[in-house]
Amino acid sequence: STRREAYRAAEQLFRAGARLRTVVLTSREQLCRNEEAKKDPAGISGHCNPVDCPFAQGFFDRAEEAVRLAFDGQNGFPRTTVLQLAQKMRICPYELQLMLAELCDVVICDYNYVFDPHVYLRRFFDGDAEDLGRYAFLIDEAHNLGDRACAMYSATLENEELVRVWRLLPEEDPLRKSLEGLAVEMHGLRRLCRDNLFKDERGLERGYYLSKAPMEQLSKQVNRVRGAIERALYLGQGGDLAPRLDCLATALRHYETVAEYYDSSFLTFVEVEGEKRTVRQICLDPSRVLDACLSRAHASVLFSATLTPQDYFADILGGGKGAVRISLPSPFKRENFCPVAVTSVSTRFEDREKSYKRICSLIAATVSAKAGNYMVYFPSYRYMEEVLRRFAERYPKVETVVQSRGMSQSEKEHFLEAFREDDKLRIGFCVLGGSFSEGVDLPGRRLIGTVIVGTGMPGISNERNILKEYYDTTRERGFDYAYVYPGMNRVLQAAGRVIRREDDRGVVVLIDDRYGDSLRASLLPDHWSHLQYAGNPSELAEIVTDFWQNTEKNE
Predict the structure, then answer these.
(1) Over 70: is that where the pLDDT of 168 sits?
(2) Helix (H) or strand (E) holding 281
(3) Is the pLDDT of residue 14 over 60?
(4) Contact, 238 vs 245, CB < 8 A?
(5) 112 vs 503: CA distance, rounded Å
(6) What is the mean pLDDT of the chain?
(7) In terms of Cα–Cα distance, which of 357, 360, 362 is closest to 343?
(8) Residues 481-506: pLDDT tens digits?
(9) What is the distance of C-alpha 230 from the center of its chain?
């Protein structure tokens, strides 16, 4: 079937689903109404009990009435509805939504409720098979699931906070000795790095060690210390250090949990930096753990507009040989979309300084044919800032909207509100892979074009190089798996911000000489088959001018 037919079928199912009971799950932190808990620097989890939280006291005495009221006249339970019900009955909204979830037909939630080894919904998936329900997983934006799963099944342990807490404990405290044992064990990891030790320009000792095996002795110490901390906290012996001990116990518990999944697709990375010791258990290949999670469902459908190449995603997302792959054509008119590649500019790190003025000219050429809203995506903040400074000097009358580091939710919303449906020329300067390059919906004239500078490849790092070596050994495509495919996925996601509805029209300009190679050309979707190439700003301006003139004739 075509994608349009699939959309119609989905719409019919949605309308029929109005009779289904549906709940949207929200995180504990966003729902919590215990003001004392929210003030606790250690987090709210330590307050989630009938003694410390008034909303947990007598929960089950009032929960049944809350559920009855919930299903009295409505079948949908978004966050606002759950909060209103919880406030009326004076019970915990987080626990209320979980109770409602067990009685609903459809549960809408984040990945972690199914895939995270710490917070997945045990009430659904643990227990005797005959007592469990039959589930179907519909997994949107599945291109993100691989990286999310690797993060969920990786763990980092550092010695700095451990040593700080140890020093603050009284000498007579038996917990101090437990922490000291783990601190000594971690400090001794320097010996493993002796073949790779060196001093940097500041004289700071650095080194690393890689292993394909878990560190069993360290894991035993982690288990012992975590148990000692939890016992002390249970007995109320933490004193003023209780919040920090609780955080430390959480980190140790996470390390232990990840160690349970350790196999040939994991790697241990030890790093020395002066007196700092860091141990990472890194999940390199999430396919096995994802396959196990997907087996909790009777069927799973993973979908995204950018699952390219399919072999790569089918490999890392689990499902096994029985997985069925379907690629649907774009429902949008080809003539409404103008993709252009400029391959005369290198945006590699060592060439960026030479490219600033050329990028400014290419941005100007892109927007010259039609006023409206555009976004330009850069590989880094520094690159963006250097080009923005020169662009603003050259074109001071053009309105610019700029993404900044660490934007709050309200700042992000304010950024997007600037893209209004008017006839003014407005350009957003953003970072590729950031908040505004996917999951953003600016239909119609709110966005009529994007310029993507670079190929989206992640920055070179120890973790990425480790990933490359792993896939070189297991798939013989290490560089592509670690850098090229994730990069092109970012590019296609950013490009996808332009055409959101059937009547949308827009241009996408890719700037980098690597868009001329056969590999990246093969990763572009079928509806990019009319991609044009421009060698300079004049050729680019001519292409986009022809496009806008033709679309106006066809209106």
Answers:
(1) yes
(2) strand 276-283
(3) no
(4) yes
(5) 36
(6) 90
(7) 362
(8) 999 999 999 999 999 999 999 899 99
(9) 31
- pLDDT higher for 237 or 520? 520
What single-letter DSSP state applies at residue 14? H
Amino acid 130: pLDDT: 67
**Using an 8 Å Cβ cutoff, are 25 and 113 in contact?**
yes
For every residue of 91-135, DSSP letters joined together read S-HHHHHHHHHTT-SEEE--THHHH-TTTS-HHHHSS-GGGS---
Query: Pick from 442, 454, 451, 449: which is nearest to 369 by CA?
Result: 449
What are the angstrom distances between the C-alpha of 314 and each of 22, 137, 249, 324?
30, 16, 36, 9
**From CA 513, how far away is CA 455, in angstroms rounded?**
9
300-317 pLDDT, tens digit per residue, is 999 998 998 988 998 899
Dist. CA 338–CA 554, nearest whole Å: 15
pTM of the model: 0.86
Q: What is the model's pLDDT at position 1?
A: 34
Residues β-bridged to residue 506:
337
> Could you please report the per-residue DSSP string of 392-416?
HHH-TTSEEEE--TT--HHHHHHHH
Polymer length in residues for the chain: 555
The runs of H, that is alpha helices, within 418-536 are: 462-474, 478-479, 485-495, 518-522
Tokens of 37: 């808990």
Res. 6: pLDDT tops 50: no
Taking CA 345 as the corner, what is the angle to CA 342 and CA 346, rounded to the nearest 5 degrees? 125
Q: Which tokens go with 490? A: 């970012």
Structure confidence at residue 71 (pLDDT): 81
